[in-house]
Structures are given as C-alpha cells and as structure tokens.
Amino acid sequence: MAKRQSLKELQERLARRLTAARAEAATASWLAIEVAGQGFLVPLVQSGEIFPWSGVQKVPFTKPWYAGVASLRGGLFGVVDLAGFLGVDAAGGDRLSMDARLVSLNPTFGVNAVLWVDRLLGLRNPSVFTSVEPTPPEAPGFVPRQLTDAQGRVWKELDLGVLASQAEFLAIAA
Fold this sequence. Notes:
Protein name: CheW-like domain-containing protein
CATH architecture: Beta Barrel
Domain CheW-like: 27-169
Pfam families: CheW (PF01584)
Helix content: 10-25%
Organism: Hydrogenophaga electricum
CATH class: Mainly Beta
Radius of gyration: 20 Å
Strand content: 35-45%
C-alpha cells in the first residue's frame, strides 16, 4: 500500500511541476539580447534556434553589416551583424567574444538568416517591465516600442517579421 501511495504522490508532484513549467513558458514573451551595449527584446514566437558563433565565411561584395554565411544544422544561413545593421556598432565590428551567439529567425518568415548578437540575457516576461512607450519617430519600423524594467534599463523590442520584410535587410549586395 505504501508503494501505491508514494507512486500517487510522485505522479501528483510531477503533474504540478509540469503545470508550473507550462505556465512559466507561457509568460516568457521575449528573448533578451545585448547588442553593442544596448538591450533588445526578440519575441519568442518570432525567433528560431540559437547557435554558438561558428565558422562564418565572408562573402565578397556585400554590405559591411553582412558578416557572411554559416552552415548550421546542415543549412546555409546568412549572418547579419545586428549592431552594424542597426548602426549602433561603436567597436567597428570588433565585438566578437565567447558570449557571441547567432539567433535564427523563425522559419515561417522564409528567410535563412541569423542575427549575430553579442550575448544572450535570458527570457523576459511582461511583468518585469514598469513602462511601455512607443519608440521615437526616427526609430526603424521593426522597433515598435521601448520597455523599461525595474532597474531603469531601456529595452527595444525587435519585430523580426517586419525586419525580415524590409528591402534593406534583404538587399545584401554592396
């Protein structure tokens, strides 16, 4: 009888943990990234896989923000230096570190591209932000709003769907 009771308790504990895990995943809305010292939020539903920096091959006659191509999981992906594309690269492209990652766009966008980001900062949910504001008029269309967290850090949300449809993003030839 004790074995049945402990099995039942184990099943109940597992069910509670699974329910809690689902609730936590549902509230995490963004992947927080850092690019040239600035905080950005990428909607989880718009992002794909995350890869470590690896074997990016330069492509001649491309724009400076186009870092090259990389073979990731057997597919060929264009690597976009997000800091260079956004024009916030104060280090002149010399930001490569052990923390650098490649964040792919969701395959539903039909663009085999990954964004080179300086580092990942984890998942964020709406409850950690104290204010939400529209971006300034000069901000690009793929940055729909800014959020401020409890520590006062300003985060810019990136709409990868809008970014993937931008003519400038798709035109890599110099």
